[in-house]
Design a protein that fits this description.
Shape: elongated
Largest sheet: none
Oligomer: single chain
Strand content: under 5%
Length: 555
């Protein structure tokens, strides 16, 4: 199901935007490097507006693009001495004085009065003082931000940026206005420029950019998934998903159910249709088993609503066996994460020996690094299903984390033909920087499944980890796409590498091809975020000539 696909593809996640713009590709290959960002204070005298101490909501006023202020209030009386001093000042000095008064009112939360001072500064400032004028517009925009007048914020930031195109504060403030107005793509471009200009030292800017990117990726994912045709992933992914739910290909039912025979023979495109016929043909528990198989293949192809409908029927039917209902609950836990905890509890209440539910609980414990509890659950699975080879490897991994360093090596010797287990061991070796042993295991995996393109991708990432062999890594990624044109991981990983190399057009092509293969919202949202981040970076380079910080090495 959805979780099985993610596992089979070894998909990465986390902050895609920072991955593309700041740290290259370590996140893709399991490295744990993180950027730590520190807030950077603004220049003295400029309004910030990063936090609203008092949020006064007012109706938007007419645009003051020409510096006029039809609703201007008196700025206060001045003594004859003060007037004499003012008369001695140049227009630019008077404008600065007005700006300083505006800053004081802003700090006091008197935004309307601050607006008046900034507007007056715009009126008296000579046109050749472009940077000063840009500052006045940006400061006035900060006041409008506190009033939630987003159109006026955007208008004033536009004027500031016409005068000073690389004005980071105006870019960041305009991005916030654009975000509120729903223009997420342009907002992301502004924030990309801000972060590059600040060399990623502004934590608030990075967080704002990441928030916009996630929202944009989610928005685009919903659109792309809405009307797309459902299709199965590569054979390697389907095989791995079937191995993760051993009850599906029940040996006792194989001879009487054609849908199971088609799945066993890897005639995957025919399985869903035949399972539907089997649902109609049988009146006993086999119809529920056929419905379970159909749900699995529907979820694999991205038809999640149809899959959930099948599973709901099985779970709610008193005629279905307790075992089939428990497996259906385990399947639903993978399709609908919101119900996962409750479904796994119910599955084990119905059938305490449901190995799929026990395995999922163990996987959750492993994700939390709770190795002892995971080991206990996996041992329980093996008592029920000792022939499930992958469980032996997962238990060995737990034991290796519990101070038994020989456990994985022993498991490799005892189960040399378990492709999933060998892959797990190879990845573990790579994480431990045992490069040669990892490569040896990946080579063994290729002998077991020559059409499994994910192994080539993993070998490519290993080349980057071991010796920063970029040409070798790229060659293996390209081989993976040739071996299996449906290998989403290959397009995604190579696209990320191309971003790091600065080949943004090529990266966008790869990400777009990967979106054609995504079946879950999580996968699609992640890929859309990658694509949008690359697009924003390309547009920033084209518009401003700003290059992101280069990475001398991948690790």
């Amino acid at each position: 199901m959805a979780a099985s696909i993610s596992s089979a593809r070894s998909s990465e996640t986390s902050s895609k935007w920072k991955l593309l713009l700041a740290i290259g590709i370590p996140t893709v290959i399991g490295a744990s490097a993180l950027w730590y960002f520190y807030s950077k204070r603004g220049k003295p005298g400029e309004a910030h507006g990063s936090k609203s101490s008092k949020k006064v909501v007012k109706s938007e006023q007419s645009s003051r693009g020409d510096g006029s202020n039809p609703a201007k209030k008196p700025l206060g009386r001045s003594t004859s001495s003060e007037r004499s001093d003012e008369e001695k000042k140049t227009p630019r000095e008077r404008a600065q004085t007005l700006k300083n008064k505006g800053n004081k009112k802003f700090a006091e939360g008197k935004y309307e009065e601050a607006i008046n001072f900034y507007t007056e500064a715009l009126n008296v400032c000579p046109p050749e003082a472009k940077e000063d004028i840009a500052t006045f517009y940006q400061n006035r925009a900060a006041c409008y931000e506190h009033q939630s007048s987003w159109k006026l914020v955007r208008d004033d930031c536009d004027k500031a940026l016409e005068l000073n195109p690389k004005y980071a504060k105006a870019l960041q403030r305009r991005a916030k206005a654009l975000e509120h107005q729903g223009d997420l793509r342009t907002a992301l471009e502004d924030m990309t420029a801000v972060c590059v200009l600040d060399m990623f030292s502004n934590q608030g800017a990075v967080m704002q950019a990441d928030r916009i990117l996630r929202a944009l990726g989610d928005e685009r994912a919903r659109v792309l998934l809405q009307d797309r045709n459902h299709s199965l992933p590569s054979h390697a992914v389907v095989r791995a998903s079937l191995r993760s739910i051993p009850s599906l290909l029940d040996a006792e039912l194989l001879e009487s159910m054609l849908s199971l025979q088609l799945a066993r023979d890897e005639r995957y495109q025919e399985v869903e249709g035949q399972a539907g016929q089997d649902v109609e043909a049988f009146s006993d528990n086999r119809r529920f088993h056929a419905s379970l198989l159909r749900a699995h293949f529907r979820a694999l192809s991205g038809a999640h609503e149809e899959a959930l409908a099948d599973l709901d029927v099985i779970i709610s039917s008193p005629d279905a066996s307790s075992h089939v209902r428990a497996v259906a609950l385990s399947e639903r836990a993978m399709v609908d994460a919101d119900k996962a905890d409750a479904d796994l509890i119910e599955a084990l209440n119905i059938d305490p020996n449901c190995v799929e539910a026990l395995h999922q609980k163990a996987a959750l414990k492993m994700a939390e690094s709770n190795w002892e509890e995971a080991n206990t659950l996996l041992e329980q699975v093996l008592r029920i299903r000792p022939d499930w080879e992958m469980i032996h490897f997962e238990r060995a991994l737990c034991q290796s984390r519990m101070n038994d360093p020989e456990a994985l090596d022993k498991c490799v010797k005892e189960h040399p033909d378990c492709i999933d287990g060998m892959m797990l061991c190879a990845q573990t070796m790579a994480e431990g920087q045992q490069w040669h042993e990892a490569e040896r295991l990946f080579q063994s995996c290729l002998k077991l499944e020559p059409d499994n393109a994910a192994i080539l991708v993993q070998r490519g990432m290993l080349k980057l980890q071991e010796g920063q062999d970029l040409p070798g890594a790229i060659s293996l990624m390209e081989d993976a796409m040739e071996v299996d044109p449906l290998c989403l991981l290959a397009y995604e990983t190579l696209g990320t590498i191309e971003v790091q190399r600065g080949n943004l057009t090529r990266a966008l092509e790869l990400f777009e091809r990967a979106t054609k293969l995504a079946v879950s919202h999580a996968e699609m949202s992640s890929l859309c975020s990658l694509a949008e981040a690359a697009r924003a970076q390309k547009n920033v380079i084209d518009r401003w000539g700003i290059q992101p910080p280069s990475q001398a090495a991948f690790f």
